[in-house]
């Protein structure tokens, strides 16, 4: 097949691709990340690039003006490579990607909460290393090398349920003798009572056993490296999910997967992200990749399909059926994840097409499944998922919130990483702003918790009305921007990149729709069970906002219901902490499985009154102020 | 690496090999089978070939005369390729290989015996196909395709113990919809209570499920194709084990495996044999290879190591330790066996280095492990293995008999296939011979049971003395041959290939050593338990003699002890029938595992008096005629 070279500027990165590949796909291969919210349908107009040299074939590009076409602008998703090309990618078309693996650390209180939940389960990592000092063979015995070795492995009952692959068997006899019968075996749990002996190494390496847990979000991917012996978290890293280049939400990705190689591209994108994080971990910690024996992932159902390269088509077609909610234990290599070649991959089981393993992990790590009183678990990500219940029952639902609270799809949004504004206080007299920045340096952008604070403060200061429109006030912070009115949170002189950090009216609209989707989902679910908010004893709030959530402000903008504030607890990324529990305990894995099976799913789209609830919630805090009595008292 | 072309005549087969490969190895690659009893040590002198053209490098070839060297004769195992070569392979150096898969059928009585034993176990094939008519998904449900499918699978308990690999998962959603939710699944048993869903096919293919069981002997390889639904045996095929090109017994093969690529060559040889048999079965029966879902093998421990390409080195080094006696369920593809790509491979568990899964299978299929009285199980192959015991205990031992009873290593020997002389009666007056030939055609050679008859008859007719020497008698059947005196069983005019079929003095010596090894092993084992022959209630005799064994003659030559003849039963190839039982029943597999664990192994080489017993048995029937009272009465 004919192949062409495509060079992207100003990155000056070149890639060779076959004829007819889209420029969008070529850019990803070159490591140039172009925004594409619609997943290549040519409807969002985000992926504009400028053709500097060469010949292309373009499908209908109705999104482009005459002028743009004259200037060589084309949509990367609809334009195919027919020649050696030179392409300019304007800043406005770039995906807001940080260097993968930029770290953030959880504050101590969240770490402590998670450590406590961890201890609910017996320490029994999915992959265990055991040092064996094996007696040498004797003539009177008939034992094989394998039997001799297995006899020394504790806790294996009944016999025959410890399996060993041929590749291990093949090197065994020489290895045992060369290491003077002192070896370390790695056991991987496969089923209840069944383990596989995945590795035998000479000498005692039992202290070098590491695992990585991942939360694979639609927008953000987070990973933690864990010492499987000491249970200690050695590091946490996060990155944007590179799949965002193919669409910002689940639906556009599922549609993109229908393209030729689309599924493969989406699969590669997330696996590459994971492998980069893994590589950085092992480099930072000076760990041999072979000593990484297990990876546990939690994520929404579509993310899990794409991770395993399983067709997600029917997730978005009625009756919304995933291929799997639960897969057994896999080998990481089967999914292209680069750890020990025989290392494990476990995925936390999900519930339904729109309630995935990330929610199961959240219910697990929050302890909701053991609560006596009525509790609500809310996970705010690109989708918002709600679980209502206790030790007796669990009911769940999902609302499509969009990625605004993850700092994506908003003009100055960013992940909750170093430099993100996570706390905002606005002086209502002069509208001056106090900003709390992660890492305490200059701000680079705004993360989810920062947006919640900012909107609540703008409401209090009268900067915006209940509809989210910016008022006409004579103040240098309020001005007309390219996309309409905007409020300047930080001026260029204060910011890390020397650019104004602003909140625009479209940003506020975006966040309003996101909070309305989540609030109305909670509301409909509570009503579905013939309950009301007063019956709720606890609310666990999870999500990638950052390390902090001002619940008062979250109520004030109408994201959370107006109930007693001490009932709220913010538990951070509970998907990640749940997957870490599974990594460290087979019992947690079994419990996650039980939780997923137990949870009943309510499909909001067919639930009566959901759209009305949503529409009513499209105000700050709500059209019905009677639902927010404490906010009404504050007279904002 | 430099490569050269080697052409073998008169076959006119050419192969390209890298520099420094031995001619023996090149010949195997070309499909030319050269005899090599010593396994390439250059000591047996069987692999003589003639260099017609080209340059070779030869190691010391002390086995060759001056004249031979002058004529270009070299030993294929010690001569390396240094040039493009032309090689003549004389008939005397060829391995006595029939076309693979030449069939023989078991006579009805043996079939009946085996069918009875079969019914001891519940029908539960290791791989099962089940047709599923799956209800279509509904909006009210949250079930994934996988769960929906697994819900329809009967007998899967507890949930989560039915595993599905990614390759099955990846095609599932389209397959289910394209086949209107009517599919056939193949379940493969992996552990107690654990199965893998290895295949999903559209429509109802549940009636097309086939398995193949193999007995992998050092000399002979036998296979049976079985309909896993009806339990019907669809065909039986056998071939010589092509590994014989690398040495006729286990020890020489283990030594050959130490060579560079030696293990790989031995592995390939047996796997090629199996794949040829499988190909012929599916061609004969017009079966799709994908409908062959399971292979079960039994064989001695070395054969199992070579099959799985596991280093057998320590089997022959004191304290004689195999790498494994039992492996779990494998995927056939892992060993290079070509059936359904996700099809199963099970190996019947063995006991020790010299008592393998073939013996476990024999004890299983004979029912010895359920007998109340004292029984002996004797398997006569290239090794002779003895098991003494009953439902209470099992004790076993192995004796190195050599392949004579399998028709190998004797001048006119052949496998018990069509054309083999299996019964012999000699008229003591004129020495005329009545021959019973398998298939009732003209004879091609002599199989094990034929040799037993022939020697017993020669003893009775006075043709040989008790030492096995041919007497000076004036009869056209007795003459001086190239290798010493010989007796003509069939003249060229009567034989299938137009060549005399003879028994030579070296043949008789060979058979005498074989029978002495087996008899003395039984004798020592009985004494080991402080018993004597009178206490034995039953003797099961297994082996590849053919379809028939004249037990009277077997006692007469001193192969079997002189006890009441009705205690003997000949059960044919019990390794094959045992592996068929396992193929058809997980319960049989579990029982085989119990038998292997229960059996105690006695190492004859360290057993006091074994060599004395062996030496005493090097007469027909024995130096101590008191041990053979009924033979003594016959005054031969």
How would you characterize this protein structure?
2 copies of one chain form a homodimer. Chain A has 636 residues and is of the alpha/beta class. Among the domains of chain A are: 3-93, Ubiquitin-like (UB roll) (Roll); 127-202, Ubiquitin-like (UB roll) (Roll), CATH 3.10.20.880. Helices cover 27% and strands 25% of the residues of chain A. Chain A is built from 16 helices and 29 strands. In chain A, the strands form 7 sheets. The first copy, chain A, has a 6-stranded mixed sheet with strand order 14-13-12-15-17-16, sandwiched between helices. Chain A has a 6-stranded mixed sheet with strand order 28-27-18-19-20-29. Chain A has a 5-stranded mixed sheet with strand order 2-1-7-3-5. In chain A, a hairpin with a 2-residue loop joins β10 (182-191) and β11. In chain A, α9 (357-366) packs across α13, α11 crosses α15 (610-616) and α13 packs across α14 (586-598). The first copy, chain A, is globular, with a radius of gyration of 26 Å. Mean pLDDT of chain A is 88; it is low at 96-118. Chains A and B meet through α4, α5 and β29 of A and α4, α5 and β29 of B.
What descriptive keywords fit this protein?
homodimer; 636 residues; alpha/beta; Ubiquitin-like (UB roll); 6-stranded mixed β-sheet; globular
């Amino acid at each position: 097949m004919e192949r062409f070279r495509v060079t992207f500027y100003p990155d000056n990165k070149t890639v060779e691709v076959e004829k007819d590949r889209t420029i969008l796909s070529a850019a990803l291969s070159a490591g140039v990340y172009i925004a594409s919210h619609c997943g290549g349908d040519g409807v969002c107009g985000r992926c504009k690039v400028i053709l500097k040299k060469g010949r292309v074939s373009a499908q209908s590009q109705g999104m482009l003006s005459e002028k743009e076409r004259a200037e060589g602008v084309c949509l990367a998703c609809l334009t195919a490579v027919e020649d050696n090309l030179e392409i300019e990618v304007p800043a406005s078309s770039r995906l807001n990607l940080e260097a993968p693996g930029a770290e953030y650390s959880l504050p101590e209180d969240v770490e402590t909460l998670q450590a406590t939940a961890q201890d609910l389960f017996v320490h029994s990592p999915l992959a265990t290393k055991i040092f064996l000092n094996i007696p040498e063979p004797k003539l009177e015995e008939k034992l094989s090398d394998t039997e001799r070795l297995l006899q020394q492995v504790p806790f294996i009952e009944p016999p025959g349920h410890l399996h060993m692959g041929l590749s291990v068997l093949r090197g065994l006899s020489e290895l045992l003798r060369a290491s003077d019968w002192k070896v370390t075996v790695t056991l991987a749990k496969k089923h209840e009572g069944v383990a596989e002996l995945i590795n035998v190494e000479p000498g005692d390496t039992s202290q070098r056993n590491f695992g990585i847990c991942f939360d694979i979000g639609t927008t953000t991917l987070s990973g933690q490296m864990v010492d499987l012996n000491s249970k200690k978290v050695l590091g946490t890293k996060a990155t944007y999910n590179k799949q965002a280049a193919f669409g910002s939400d689940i639906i556009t990705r599922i549609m993109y997967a229908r393209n030729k190689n689309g599924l493969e591209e989406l699969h590669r994108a997330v696996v590459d992200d994971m492998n980069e994080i893994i590589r950085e971990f092992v480099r930072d910690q000076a760990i041999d990749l072979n000593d990484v024996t297990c990876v546990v992932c939690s994520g929404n159902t579509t993310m899990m399909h794409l991770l395993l390269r399983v067709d997600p088509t029917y997730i978005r077609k009625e009756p919304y059926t995933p291929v799997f909610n639960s897969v057994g234990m896999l080998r990481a290599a089967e999914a292209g994840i680069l750890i020990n070649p025989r290392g494990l991959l476990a995925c936390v089981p999900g519930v339904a097409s729109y309630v995935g393993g990330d929610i199961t992990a959240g219910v697990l790590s929050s302890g909701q499944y053991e609560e006596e009183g009525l509790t609500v678990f809310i996970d705010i990500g690109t989708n918002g998922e709600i679980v209502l219940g206790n030790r007796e029952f669990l009911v769940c639902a999902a609302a499509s919130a969009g990625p605004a609270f993850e700092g994506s799809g908003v003009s100055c949004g960013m992940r909750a990483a170093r430099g993100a504004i996570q706390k905002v206080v606005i002086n209502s007299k002069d509208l001056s702003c106090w900003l709390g920045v992660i890492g305490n340096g200059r701000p680079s952008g705004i993360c989810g918790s920062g947006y919640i604070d900012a909107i609540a403060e703008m409401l209090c200061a009268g900067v915006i009305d209940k509809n989210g429109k910016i008022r006409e006030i004579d103040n240098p912070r309020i001005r007309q921007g390219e996309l309409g009115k905007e409020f300047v949170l930080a001026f260029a002189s204060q910011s890390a990149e020397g650019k104004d950090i602003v909140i625009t009216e479209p940003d506020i609209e975006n966040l309003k729709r996101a909070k309305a989707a989540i609030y109305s989902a909670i509301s409909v679910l509570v009503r579905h069970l013939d309950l009301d908010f007063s019956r709720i004893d606890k609310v666990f709030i999870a999500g990638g906002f950052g390390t902090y959530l001002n619940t008062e402000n979250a109520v004030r903008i109408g994201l959370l219901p107006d109930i007693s504030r001490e009932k709220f607890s913010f538990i951070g990324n509970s998907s990640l902490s749940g997957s870490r529990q599974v990594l460290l305990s087979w019992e947690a894995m079994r419990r996650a499985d039980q939780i997923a099976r137990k949870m009943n799913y309510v499909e909001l789209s067919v639930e009566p009154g959901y759209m009305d609830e949503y529409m009513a919630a499209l105000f700050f805090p709500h059209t019905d102020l009677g639902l927010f009595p404490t906010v009404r008292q504050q007279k904002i």
